[in-house]
Amino acid sequence: VSELRGALPVAINVFDIQWYYALPIAFIGNLLPIPFVYFLIERIRRLFNKLGILGVWTEKFLARTRRRADFIQKYGKLGLAVFVAIPLPITGAWTGIIAAYLIGMRFRDTVAPICMGVLISGIIVTVFCLLEWTGAIIAGVALCVLLILWLRPRRKKETAVNE
Known about the structure:
Elements: H1 3-14, H2 19-31, H3 34-49, H4 53-85, H5 93-102, H6 107-130, H7 132-151
Helix pairs in contact: 1-2, 1-6, 2-6, 3-4, 3-5, 4-5, 4-6, 5-6, 6-7
């Protein structure tokens, strides 16, 4: 569930696996579920909607993902790659493929941007892991700043009223 962002710190810093082994394995592991998520999302959605609270949570997640997908829709493939590359919670490959599905992107148009985004994210996370405590502090501060910027209330553009 944490994708590559959780796998790399555990592999490198907990199990002392060399980064050049951990990164390719995490990269491939992160990408394996993507086709299944894309092609089964609607079936999963219908199933969860029959299960009460799970359906409510699913719809809230999809609504939030659809709102965040504006960036992807605006910038297309580049926007999808950047969205997936940002190593923040809820911006990974799974959310990216769901957002792409929700805005109507074809699967074949999502493969390369998601692969690029996961690779960039993996490189960023690997560098932070190799920096150990310094990397953790830098990542923590950057994460806090990005989350504050991401979650801040957005002001609606005021429209001029012609009288």
